[in-house]
Amino acid sequence: MKRYDKLLLVDKEDTAMAPMAEAIMQHRMLLEDILIESRGLVVLFEEPVNPRAWQVLDLKGLTTEGEQHTSRQLEEADFDERTLVLTMQEAQKEKILSEYHSPVNVFTLREYVGADEDPADPYGGSLEEYETCFEQLWFMTNRLADIIKQEG
Q1: What element of type H or E holds 106?
Q2: Is 117 exposed, middle or buried (0-12, 13-18, 19+ CB in 10 A)?
Q3: Any alpha helices (H) in the chain, and if so which ranges?
Q4: Domain segments of the chain: what residues?
Q5: Against a cut of 0.90, is the pTM above it?
Q6: Which of 95, 98, 100 is nearest to 80 (CA)?
Q7: Architecture of the structural domain at 6-79+89-151
Q8: Residue 30: exposure state from Cβ atoms within 10 A (0-12, 13-18, ≥19)
Q9: Which of 4, 89, 90, 148 is the most exposed place for a label (fewest CB within 10 A)?
């Protein structure tokens, strides 16, 4: 029996890193039976994917996965035993653990896949910084896909 039915990728606003990771994972896990979505910790109103993140996804041929994406707030109802919640950075994990009542299965992407460091947040940066972040996410999410397949 598979361990998780749902994967939530979480960043601050759900407009850049988490949607990029979501698009990569959806591409990588296309034929797998797991729901993959992203969420934000501070979503005041729905927003589309950041234009630079969108441009990188488009350059990599992954825009179809994110075309309908709008940012969504992480909520208490998102936590359960069958949902894996992975944050893009350590501070986001700490925020979840301190501000939500019943968080379970919450890790950073880095720690879950055994990477050396969190992906660099490209917020406000150049297209090259978004590309660097994408490459880091590509590496980590491919390891994540392998781990999820092994656990299932």
Answers
A1: strand 106-108
A2: exposed
A3: 17-28, 51-59, 63-66, 90-99, 109-113, 127-151
A4: 6-79+89-151
A5: yes
A6: 100
A7: 3-Layer(aba) Sandwich (3.40)
A8: exposed
A9: 90
